[in-house]
Amino acid sequence: MDKTQVTDLFMRGQDCSQVVLSHFAKELGFSPEEANRISAGFGGGSGIGETCGAVIGALIVIGMKYGHSGPDDMEQRNELMAKRAEFLQKWNEKRGTCMCREFLGHDITKPGEFEKVLEEGTMFSLCPELVVDAIEILDEMIK
């Protein structure tokens, strides 16, 4: 997936977390529609500028692929934690932060700040790049 494709999805109302998770949906055994519903609440750093939605989408992918499903599954839990650490290390090497508000340059919880992000075009310039980065890191890790 490239930046143009991601930007088109953003223009049609999808969020960063949705694009990342739906990209891997079939590989994980569910539909893109299910992926979109699962990840719908995480765009814009969960709507409060916290952890970038592309990162959250990637962590959901990692959880679905490597996650443990019970309290006594320590071996699988350890694999999940290693994969999560690997992703976050690669992400931080490339981007330096996971914080949505740092990428956007605004605290979108404050009145008028989200509008500034839209005016500046960050959501349609930088955010698609972040989604592509998350997908590329995951592709490298899991394929």
Describe this structure in words.
The two termini are 15 Å apart. The protein has one domain (3-142). It contains ten helices and no strands. It is globular and about 50 Å long. The chain is 74% helix and 0% strand. The protein has 143 residues and is mainly α.
Secondary structure elements and pairings:
Elements: H1 3-11, H2 16-23, H3 25-28, H4 32-39, H5 43-49, H6 53-66, H7 74-95, H8 100-104, H9 113-120, H10 122-142
Helix pairs in contact: 1-10, 2-4, 2-6, 2-10, 6-7, 6-10, 7-10
Distance between the termini: 15 Å
Largest sheet: none
Structural class: mainly alpha
**Count of alpha/pi helices:** 10
Q: What is the N-to-C order of secondary-structure elements (H for helix, E for strand)?
A: HHHHHHHHHH
Q: Which ranges are low-confidence, i.e. pLDDT below 50, for 5 or more consecutive residues?
A: none
Number of domains in the coordinates?
A: 1
| Oligomer category | single chain
- How much is the average pLDDT? 95
The overall strand count is: 0
Strand content: under 5%
